[in-house]
Amino acid sequence: MKYRFYIFLFLYVVLSFKAVFSQNKPVYGLVIHGGAGFATRESLHGKEKDYLNAMQLAIDSGYRILERGGNAVDAVEATIQILENCPYFNAGKGSVITKAGTIEMDASIMEGKNLKAGAVAGVRRIKNPIRAARLVMDKTPHVLITGKGAEDLWIKQGYELTDTSYFYDREMLEKWKKEREKEKMTDKHGTVGAVALDQYGNLAAGTSTGGMMNKLPGRVGDSPIIGAGTYANNETVAISCTGHGEFFIKHAVAFQVHALMKFKKMTLKEASYTVIQEELKNIGASGGLIAIDKDGNISMEFNTSMMFRGYRLSNKKNEVLIFK
Predict the structure, then answer these.
(1) Of 166, 273, 290, 306, whose Cβ has the fewest other Cβ atoms within 10 Å?
(2) Edge-to-edge, what's the strand order for the sheet holding 230-232?
(3) Are 103 and 219 within 8 A, CB to CB?
(4) Which of 79, 98, 191, 304 is catalytic?
(5) Which bin fits 242, alpha (ψ -120 to 50), beta or left (φ > 0)?
(6) Rounded CA gap, 281 and 279, in Å?
(7) What is the mean pLDDT of each run of 10 residues along the chain (324 residues)?
(8) Domains defined along the chain, listed by start
(9) Is 191 assigned a catalytic role?
(10) Do residues 66 and 72 touch, judged by C-beta distance below 8 A?
C-alpha cells in the first residue's frame, strides 16, 4: 500500500509542477501580411501554393528567433527580409515602378518597449529597406530619412548599394507599360509587414513596400509613417497596415487602433474592426492590418476580398491564408 501511495504522490507532484509551469510559460508569436486587395485565384495564375509557401518560410524564419529567446525587433526584421527577397510581393525585389520608370521603396520598424522607431522612404538601391529602417532606429537620433540621405547613411555604416537592375523583372515591366499607356495609377496592395511579441513581453512592428504602380516620383505612402502604417507600444499592441496609403495617413490607422485600446478600453478585435470595417470602409478606403497585442491575441482584419496573411503562435497554432 505504501508503495502505491508514494507512486501516486510522485505522479501528483509531477503533474502539478507541469500545470504550474505551463501556466507561467510566456506567450509569444508572430503575424505577417503580404498585402490586401481584390485578387482572385485565377489572377494568381496557379501560384497560390507558391504564395503560401513563401509566407510560411518568412513566418518560420522570424518565429525561430522568438522560440530561441530572441527579441521581437530581430524577428520582425528577419521576417520582412524574406518577404522583400520574394518577387511575389510589392516590396524589395517585387517592388512596382513609378511613372518615371524608377523604383522607390519605403520601410519602417518600431519597438514597443521604448517607442524607438526608424524609417526610410524613396530608396532605390538598398536591397532590403527594412534593414535600412532598423539602421535609422539604432544608429541615428532620427525617425525618417529619405532618398539619397538614407543611401548615404547605408554606405557610411559599411554596407553596399545594390544595382537597380536587381529590382526589375520582365513581368513587372510589362505591367508597368500597360498602366503607363492607360495613364493609370494602380494601388497594388502587395505591401509586406510583420508584428511580433517576444518571450519578454516586448512588441515590435515593421512594414515595407514599393508603393503604388505608376505613382508620381517622390510619392510616399503610409508604410514609413509611424502611427499610420506601423506602430508598436508595449502597453497595447503592435500593428502593420496595408492599403491605400493616403487614407491610412489621414486617419492615423495604426495609432488609432492603439488609442481605442488604451483610452476606450476596446479589445484588439473590437478596435481593429472599428477602424477597418467601419471608419475606412465608410469613406471608400480599402485595405487591412495585422496586429498582436501584449497578451498574445492577434488580428488580421481587412475589408477587401483577400489579404495574404499568416501567423504562428507559441500555443502551436500556425496558419497561412489568402482568401476569406
Answers:
(1) 166
(2) 230-232, 237-243, 287-293, 298-302
(3) no
(4) 191
(5) beta
(6) 6
(7) 56 51 78 96 93 98 98 98 97 95 97 98 98 98 98 98 92 78 60 98 98 95 98 98 96 98 98 98 96 98 97 97 94
(8) 26-312 (3.60.20.30)
(9) yes
(10) yes
